[in-house]
UniProtKB/TrEMBL annotation, chain A:
It comes from the Bacteria. Pfam families: SBP_bac_3. This is Putative amino-acid-binding protein yxeM. It comes from Bhargavaea cecembensis DSE10. The keyword DNA repair does not apply. Residues 36-257 form the Solute-binding protein family 3/N-terminal domain. Gene3D superfamilies: Periplasmic binding protein-like II. The gene is yxeM. InterPro entries: Solute-binding_3/MltF_N.
Automatic annotation (TrEMBL), chain B:
Residues 19-210 form the ABC transmembrane type-1 domain. GO terms for cellular component: ATP-binding cassette (ABC) transporter complex. PROSITE patterns: ABC_TM1. Keywords: Amino-acid transport, Cell membrane, Membrane, Transmembrane, Transmembrane helix, Transport. It comes from Bhargavaea cecembensis DSE10. GO terms for molecular function: L-cystine transmembrane transporter activity. The chain crosses the membrane at residues 23-45, 57-78, 84-107, 189-209. This is Putative amino-acid permease protein yxeN. Its main location: membrane. The gene is yxeN. It is a multi-pass membrane protein. Belongs to the binding-protein-dependent transport system permease family.
Amino acid sequence: MRTLKFTLVLLAIAALLAACGGEAGDSADGGSDKKVVKVGATPDGYPQYFKEDGELKGFSVDVIEAIYDELGYEVQWEVTDWTGVLASMETGKIDTVANFAATPERGEKYNFSDPYYNSKAVLATGKDREEISFDELKKGKIAVAMGTNYPNVLTTAYPDEEFNFVTYESADVIYSDVGSGKLDAFVHGREILMAQINEKGLPLRVVGEPFGDQPVALPFKKNEEGDKMIEEVNGALETLRADGTISELSEKWYGMDLLEDSKN
Amino acid sequence: MNFDLGYMIEIIPELLKYLPMTLYLAIVSMIIAVIIGVILALILVNKTPVLLQIAKVYISFFRGTPALVQLLLIYFGLPQLFPGLNAMSAATAAIIAFSLNTSAYLAEIFRAGLQSVDKGQAEAAVSVGMTYAQAMRGIVIPQAVRNAIPATGNIFIGLIKNSSLAFTIGVTELLSQGKLLATANLRFFEAYLAVGLIYWALTILYNWLQQWYEHRIGKPYRV
């Protein structure tokens, strides 16, 4: 029967695809005996965490791999969008998350390692927009990338003011919406935004001074295993800070030492 | 806006590496969905007691809730109830979710296809000594298939693109590869447009296949 033949051809194609699809999906599994830690990450973009030539690169990638190299683990990256990162953490499909803001609210759910850097927040507006003061700008519509904690940093820095936040699923549309003036401002991490403006030519400029202080750390489940991991990670962080590895990585990606900076 | 056409063309080979994953998700899900859809449609048409009620709840649930919610329930929710399912890969979970979701839509399309063939034809076939199965296979289904193909094609084209939801649970496919490539140099528009062109080309290719098939099964209707 003709239909049957057609179905068989489809099935054959599917089987073929299953073979190659399967390979593509499992490429992360190495054959080594090293202990594996699964780290969830959502594409934050250059220079924090990005994909180039088929590899993950960036500051958070380097720091986390350095930490776990120190501890003798192999890092297995699990790349999903923000919803997936949160759900994977909750259900234990990943052990920890890269570039995760350590906030008191999140602290009710997870325990944190020591921060591996502190982020300050800035407000940016469109490059071609006329001069505007920081105080004026923060009264406008402010874009927020989902999963970032910078709006809270802003509200904490100015507790008496009402803000008009607009949340986006990811930063990509924000660049063009704020760049073109549909929205007034973008509240984001100083380091990542400065690096992107300077090196990738985003159509934005920073207005006023950086504010707030947002520690970024590795979250772990509140259980014995998580506590043990935090202890190990903190030990490794201590070593990496002392021997200058973290400062070096920070210089490499941001052109400044975030550790020195956050002491001030 | 400074649009970099060169970059857009440059990344197409990088994107095409993930085309097999998109096709794998879409085609395998579609095949499973067609099988489930046919079973559901037969239940709906024959009004088999008990099964009919189950089928109705199934269709109502999978058409009535967002595919993303179903995906999350299957990948993160089910292993909470059945710890054995924790070993399920993300791609497998995505295929299960897409199959179940799509089958609910297909069931309605197939039901309409079956009902578009006049009941008298099956009755006539049975009256000349064919069994019910023979009447379905030889008379009703070939006509129903012809009627259901255009709508089924729509669903499949939709599925190809919706398979990008799988990124939520960590499957990198065409669209998410575009997003990820753009994280390096923030050229999102170039990446998204390149992705769009690949999906479009894919749809055109599929459309040719469907036209060829429609032409084939339409032969008896042309004089």
